[in-house]
Amino acid sequence: MKSSTRNPNPNPDTPRFGPSKLMLAFRFLRALTLVHRTAPNSSNAARSRRIQRAAFASMAYSAGPRRAWSRALLCRLHFHRARRRCARRSRAAGVPRRPSTTRSPADGLRRLVPGGTGMDYCSLLEETADYIRCLSEQVKLMQSIVDSVGPGGR
Amino acid sequence: MSSRRPRSWQPSSASRITDEQINDLVSKLQAVLPEARIRRSDRVSAAKVLQETCNYIRSLHREVDDLSERLSELLASTESSSAQAAIIRSLLM
């Protein structure tokens, strides 16, 4: 199988998490610890939002700047952080939301994939495939954390 | 890549991208979708693949939201050091 993922290890006996997935896990766990430590008494909703942002941030940092979707995510995350601290600004850095009269599946995809609105069709398809791969890795990671810590985990 | 080209659903006929390239990319996308959503052996239209892709991404986003909530509850209720120990154990084994 052509190794199109970042994991270069073709060994079928690889541990559950290869080197790139370990990096993802490490980043996410570090972010989780930070959330827990800095706001232990905040509401569940606020903490949950921070964890969700941490998930996307870990994904984007692990993918690095080589992907348009990860660059777009990192821009968005930094922009939101700056916007919270400063006075309200216009959505200049964001994408203007104009209602589209023609709804094609590609339009829907552009809205879902970070940075999608700025891409040509071919790049959109490539970026989407990579985005889905990384997103499902993130979901698997979060699920395994919940499984190990949750009721019955020790 | 021409950025002045309108981002229409179909690329214009004068583009340098061949239909074959696009079909290739669409089938690569189809390969990333889980089998439950769309069988990889099926020849489906590009529109269907994109539609299923949108649905799949939306469901993944929902899973991230849901798992974030559960993690948030777990963080609040679990002793921090034992949680970290459990996580690290599960990751390394």
The sequence of SSEs of chain A as H and E is HHHHH
What fraction strand of chain A?
A: under 5%
Q: Please indicate the count of domains of chain B.
A: 1
Q: How would a crystallographer describe the biggest sheet of chain A?
A: none
Number of strands of chain B: 0
What is the helix content of chain A?
Answer: 55-70%
From the alpha-carbon coordinates, what is the Rg of chain B to the nearest angstrom? 21 Å
Oligomer: heterodimer
Class from secondary-structure proportions of chain B? mainly alpha
Distance between the termini of chain A: 37 Å
Number of helices of chain B: 3
Family (chain B): Belongs to the bHLH protein family.
Pfam families (chain B): bHLH_ILI
Protein name (chain B): BHLH domain-containing protein
GO molecular function (chain B): protein dimerization activity
What does this structure look like?
The complex is a heterodimer of chains A (154) and B (93). Chain A is an all-alpha fold. Chain A has helices at 19-38, 44-63, 68-85, 105-112, 121-149. Chain A contains five helices and no strands. The relative contact order of chain A is 0.11. Chain B has 93 residues and is an all-alpha fold. Chain B has helices at 19-32, 46-77, 80-92. In chain B, helix 1 runs parallel beside helix 2 (46-77). The longest helix of chain B has 32 residues, at 46-77. In chain B, 22% of the residues are buried. Classes of the chains: A mainly alpha (154), B mainly alpha (93). At the A-B interface, helix 1, helix 2, helix 4 and helix 5 of A face helix 1, helix 2 and helix 3 of B.
